[in-house]
Design brief:
This is Methionyl-tRNA synthetase. With 71 residues, the protein is mostly beta strands. The chain is built from one helix and three strands; from the N terminus they run βββα. The chain has one domain. A three-stranded antiparallel beta sheet has the order 1-2-3, with no helix packed on it. The longest helix has 4 residues. The protein is elongated. 6% of the residues are buried. The N terminus is likely disordered. Bound molecules: zinc ion (ZN). Zinc ion binds next to loops.
Length: 71
């Protein structure tokens, strides 16, 4: 059990909601996913917690982050 969680980054999905816009690939709806990311540097001691928002297509699951990073 020793090094099971060392150096891992765990992501927990906090919620999903619809985002404006459409997938450029297939025209499907864009979904914004709020993710809480915890990086554990020492065993079982979360050192870095941050919230991220990811965008993806609800139909083809293509990541659409590049569309929104410069917005
Ligand atoms: Zn799509």
């Amino acid at each position: 059990m020793a090094a099971a969680c060392c150096g891992l980054e765990e992501e927990t999905v906090m919620g999903e909601q619809k985002a404006p816009g459409a997938c450029p690939r297939c025209g499907g709806a864009v979904v914004a996913t709020d993710v809480e990311s915890v990086r554990r540097v020492l065993c079982c001691l979360p050192l870095c917690v941050k919230n991220k928002r990811k965008f993806s297509c609800a139909r083809c699951r293509r990541s659409l982050a590049a569309l929104f990073t410069h917005a």
